[in-house]
Structure to design on (591 residues):
């Protein structure tokens, strides 16, 4: 079972190269952007150095931490947006492409059950893609911190202390992993839905996935004048993600003054894993994901491809 | 001899259309059975039922297993090549070998690599870079490296040129087939397989028209080229088909002994293709 799953997940990564190409591309783009910013800013005065985290002449410790935290958050956010797109396109393609190119006949000629296959796609969507995204985040941070510390050192500052010593890197990466995994689990009913559409639809999986979601929301609003579906299903986004102790970002970064509280240098304490794991809404989502994925297994098993 | 496949009253309907209609047969191990039928005859549906890809009514047992409900176990002992090039186009040859090696308990990677060395297929190539013939060679190399009891080939050589087709069957016979193994093959190119087959089955409109060992065909079916003045006498014996060739009537008889036919003209055993045409036309009229 485990060797099968490993082989099946490996297969997914071979087939869907975007799983690792996209994070790698974002890492390169972010790094080039930061490099450009530094080269551009180095010709200017101290005000701009605030934008390039950790410059030697940055006024004080809290500002540098704020700059570093802002860098962490903004880059992680780009990766989380990428995660969303990657997961949607991956899921919609995962059980559709094999039917389109008829390779399903080859896959099904081997001793693997339909349940094993669908589970491997679920594992890829909920565990593998988020993990690759976090690795992308970490790699981007490391490369940029190296670049920044070299830059600071060239300017005569102590790069090791100013850049590497000012924020809890491991805690922040752990926080990134927790948030990204929580996002994936929180969005799991959508993952289940996309897998079902991918297994079922004969054409346009993207349209077939989103049209019913939008139509149900619209019809409910028009007919019943209520927004239960929209509020509980469509609005299942980051704002309501029960992993955050507080979703109010201004409580740890005062954007108007570029001031930062001590708590901002470490993002981990802002997360509440117990709250997440005991959230009924999260478990309801997991249950819906399970039901929809079972539907995908059923469709792959019973549909006659001839 | 033991029955590898046993079908009893197998029926498959799609809505009001009956693709396979109350079919019963046995396939013994160590045979090469040709399943021949026109387009839409129900061949592929029947194969899919055998492979557990589709559910059906009636009793169907393959190696003692219910193919639809015990498909995973069944697939450890069955291999099949479907009628289209179905290897995923994005995969590399090495990846394909890695995957099958991890998934299939009876796969020998060493053997697959040996077989691939005899071809022009590079280990690092992607399937999309290979010609159709090479894709089939790759697929066959994998299949031949799996120690399976039953090999199902559904139009395996469709779209291949004559050289690849000949090589395909030669490899299959020389490197794969033995009395432990059974091959079930469907094809339109009847002439190419008729010398390989040990058994023959015709299917039309979901029904079996003929199910016979090859060596028994000569006892049952006789083709006679009859000159004009003997034609009426020959027709009296009830040929199942009649055609004209070089001014003679060529008649095909079923179940009429050769002693009765001698003296009417040259006797010979009909080709599978002629027999097939006669049977299908007979069934339709």
């Amino acid at each position: 079972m485990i060797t099968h799953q490993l082989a099946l997940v490996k297969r997914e990564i071979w087939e869907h190269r975007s799983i690792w190409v996209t994070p790698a591309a974002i890492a390169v783009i972010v790094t080039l952007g930061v490099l450009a910013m530094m080269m551009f800013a180095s010709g200017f005065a101290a005000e701009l150095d605030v934008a390039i985290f950790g410059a030697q002449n940055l006024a004080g410790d809290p500002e540098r931490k704020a700059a570093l935290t802002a860098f962490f958050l903004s880059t992680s956010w780009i990766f989380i947006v990428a995660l969303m797109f990657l997961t949607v396109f991956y899921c919609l393609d995962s059980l559709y492409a094999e039917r389109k190119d008829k390779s399903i006949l080859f896959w099904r000629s081997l001793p693997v059950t339909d349940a094993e296959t669908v589970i491997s796609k679920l594992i890829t969507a909920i565990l593998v893609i988020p993990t690759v995204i976090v690795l992308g985040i970490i790699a981007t941070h490391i490369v940029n911190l190296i670049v920044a510390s070299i830059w600071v050192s060239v300017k005569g500052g102590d790069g090791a202390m100013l850049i590497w010593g000012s924020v809890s890197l491991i805690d922040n990466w752990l926080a990134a992993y927790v948030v990204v995994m929580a996002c994936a689990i929180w969005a799991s009913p959508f993952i289940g839905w996309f897998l079902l559409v991918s297994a079922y639809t004969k054409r346009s999986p993207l349209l077939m996935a989103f049209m019913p979601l939008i139509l149900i929301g619209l019809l409910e609003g028009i007919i019943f004048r209520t927004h239960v579906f929209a509020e509980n299903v469509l609005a299942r986004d980051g704002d309501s993600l029960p992993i955050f102790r507080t979703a109010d970002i201004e409580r740890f970064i005062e954007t108007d003054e570029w001031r930062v509280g001590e708590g901002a240098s470490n993002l981990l304490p802002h997360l509440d894993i117990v709250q997440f794991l005991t959230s009924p809404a999260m478990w309801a989502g997991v249950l819906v994901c399970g039901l929809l994925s079972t539907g995908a297994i059923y469709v792959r098993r019973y549909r006659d491809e001839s | 001899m033991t029955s590898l496949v046993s079908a009893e009253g197998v029926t498959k309907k799609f809505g009001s259309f009956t693709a396979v209609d109350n079919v019963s047969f046995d396939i013994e191990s160590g045979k090469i059975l040709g399943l021949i039928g026109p387009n839409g005859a129900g061949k592929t549906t029947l194969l899919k039922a055998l492979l557990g890809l589709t559910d059906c009514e009636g009793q169907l047992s393959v190696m003692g297993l219910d193919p639809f409900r015990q498909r995973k176990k069944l697939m450890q002992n069955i291999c099949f090549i479907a009628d289209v090039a179905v290897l995923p186009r994005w995969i590399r040859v090495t990846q394909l070998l890695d995957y099958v090696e991890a998934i299939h308990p009876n796969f020998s990677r060493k053997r697959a690599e040996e077989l691939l060395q005899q071809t022009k297929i590079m280990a690092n190539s992607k399937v999309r870079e290979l010609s159709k013939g090479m894709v089939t060679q790759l697929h066959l190399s994998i299949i031949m490296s799996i120690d399976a009891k039953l090999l199902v080939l559904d139009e395996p050589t469709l779209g291949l040129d004559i050289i690849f087709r000949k090589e395909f069957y030669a490899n299959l016979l020389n490197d794969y087939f033995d009395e432990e193994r059974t091959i079930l093959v469907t094809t339109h190119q009847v002439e190419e397989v008729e010398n390989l087959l040990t058994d023959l089955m015709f299917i039309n409109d979901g029904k079996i028209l003929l199910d016979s060992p090859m060596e028994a065909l000569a006892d049952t079916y006789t083709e006679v080229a009859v000159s004009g003045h003997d034609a009426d006498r020959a027709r009296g014996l009830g040929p199942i088909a009649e055609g004209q060739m070089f001014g003679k009537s060529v008649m095909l008889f079923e179940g009429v002994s050769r002693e009765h036919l001698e003296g009417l003209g040259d006797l010979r055993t009909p080709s599978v293709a002629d027999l097939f045409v006669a049977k299908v036309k007979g069934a339709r009229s």
In short: The longest strand of chain A covers residues 253-254.
